[in-house]
Amino acid sequence: MNKNKKFLITGSNGQLAKEFQHTFTEQNVQYTAFTRSQLDITDFALVEQTIKNEKPDVVLNCAAYNLVDVAEDQPEIAHKINVEAVGNLARVCQANGIFFVHYSTDYVFDGQKNAPYTEEDEPNPINVYAQSKYQGEQAVEQVAKDSLTFRVSWVFGEGQQNFFYKVEQWLQQKDRLQIVDDNKSVVTYAKDIVDITLLALEKGLRGLYHLTNSGACSRYESVKYYVMKKGIDKPVDPISSSHFVEKAKRAPYTLLSNQKISKELNITIPHWQDAVDRFIERKNK
Ligand SMILES: NC(=O)c1ccc[n+]([C@@H]2O[C@H](COP(=O)([O-])OP(=O)(O)OC[C@H]3O[C@@H](n4cnc5c(N)ncnc54)[C@H](OP(=O)(O)O)[C@@H]3O)[C@@H](O)[C@H]2O)c1
Questions:
Q1: Catalytic residue check, 226
Q2: Ligand 1 pocket: which of 18, 36, 147 to mutate (most atoms <8 Å of CB)?
Q3: By CB neighbour count within 10 A (0-12 exposed, 13-18 middle, 19+ buried), where does 122 fall?
Q4: Quick check: is 56 in a domain?
Q5: What is the tally of structural domains in the chain?
Q6: What is the CATH number of the domain that holds 266?
Q7: Dist. CA 92 → ligand 1 center (Å)
Q8: Dist. CA 156 → ligand 1 center (Å)
Q9: pLDDT per position in the chain (285 positions), as tens?
Q10: Domain that holds residue 76
C-alpha cells in the first residue's frame, strides 16, 4: 500500500509535482519534495546524499527540462537534465533499493504513423528536447529494473506552466483566439497521471507505459472545448501551425495508445473532456 510508503519528489514547483503533493497531503501519505533550488538534479553528489539521508521508498522524478524551442540552442543543458541527471537518479535509486518513477513524452515519436502509438513502436525524436527525453528513458532502462517510465502528453494542471493557463491569459488580452489545428495528440490531466501512477505502484508494475487521458484532440479542439465549458463568449479559430515560426520541429501526430496500462490495471482512463470538466470544476470551487 502507498500509505505506508515514503515518497521523494524532485522538481516540486512543476505542475505534476504539485499534483502529487496535493494528493499526498489529502491522503496523508508521507513525502518530501524538493524544488530546483533545494535539489538541482544535475548536482549528482547532492542527489546521492539527499536520497541516502531521506531514505524514501519511491523517488518520483518530476524535474525536467521542458523548453522545447529553447532546447534547440541548449542541447547540452537539455542533455544534462533530461539524460545524465535522470540516469544518475535511477542509478542511485537502484543501488539503494528505492523504486524510481520517471516521465517522458509523446514527442519521442515522429508523427508518421497516423494511428495511436503503442509501447512497441520505435521512437524517432525530431527535435533536441525529444531526443533528450528518449535518451532519458534509455538511461533509466539501462540502470534501474525497479522503475516505471510513463510517456505522457500535453499535461495540464495547477500552476502557470500549463497550456490552459496560457489560454486564460490570451482570453484577457485578445478579442478572438487563433489556435493550431493541424496537430493531434491528447491533453492529459496531471491529477489522472498522479492517480494512475499510484495505482501502478500499488499493483507492482515495472517498465515503460503510455499514460494519457482517452480520446484525441488538436490544440484547437482542446481550447474550443475549454472556452465553451467555461461559458466564455469569445471566438476561437483554427489555424495552421505554418502561421507560427517555431525553432523546434513538431510532429503532426503523436497520439499515444493507453491500452496497455488500462488493461494491466483493469481501468478505463477518463476521456480528456471529462478531465477538463473536473479541472474547471476544481478551479471554480
Ligand atoms: N507539460 C507537458 O505538456 C508535458 C508533456 C509531455 C511530457 N511531460 C513530462 O512530464 C513531466 C512533468 O512535467 P511538468 O509539466 O510537471 O513540468 P514542469 O511544470 O515544467 O515542471 C518541471 C520542473 O522541473 C524543474 N527543474 C528543471 N530543471 C531542474 C533541475 N536541474 N533540477 C531540479 N528541478 C529542475 C523546474 O524547475 P523551475 O520551476 O525552477 O523551472 C520545474 O519546476 C516531465 O518529465 C515532462 O518532461 C510534460
A1: no
A2: 36
A3: exposed
A4: yes
A5: 1
A6: 3.40.50.720
A7: 20
A8: 12
A9: 678 899 999 999 999 999 999 999 999 999 999 999 999 999 999 999 999 999 999 999 999 999 999 999 999 999 999 999 999 999 999 999 999 999 999 999 999 998 999 999 999 999 999 999 999 999 999 999 999 999 999 999 988 878 899 999 999 999 999 999 999 999 999 999 999 999 999 999 999 999 999 999 999 999 999 999 999 989 999 999 988 889 999 999 999 999 999 999 999 999 999 999 999 999 888
A10: 2-162+186-216+256-270
pTM above 0.90, yes or no: yes
The reply to whether 123 falls in a domain is yes
Environment class of 284 (CB within 10 Å of its CB; exposed 0-12, middle 13-18, buried 19+): exposed
Ligand 1 centroid from CA 103, angstroms: 9
Q: Kindly give the distance from the C-alpha atom of residue 161 to the centroid of ligand 1, in angstroms, as a whole number.
A: 9
What atom in ligand 1 is closest to the CA of residue 16?
16
Q: Which residues line ligand 1 (CB under 6 A)?
A: 10-11, 13-16, 36, 40-42, 62-66, 81, 103, 105, 133, 152-155, 161
Distance (Å, rounded) from C-alpha 95 to C-alpha 93? 5
- Whole-angstrom distance, CA of residue 179 vs CA of residue 176: 10
Catalytic residue among 129, 189, 209, 226: 129
User: Can you tell me the distance from the alpha carbon of 26 to that of 29, in angstroms, rounded to the nearest whole number?
Assistant: 8
Query: Which atom of ligand 1 lies nearest, measured to the CA of 162?
Result: 1
Please write the tens of the pLDDT for every residue from 30-75: 999 999 999 999 999 999 999 999 999 999 999 999 999 999 999 9
For residue 13, the ligand 1 atom closest to its alpha carbon is: 43
C-alpha 133/C-alpha 64 separation (Å) is 9
DSSP state, 270? P
DSSP codes of every residue in 182-210: S-BB--EEHHHHHHHHHHHHHTT--EEEE
**Any domain includes 52:** yes
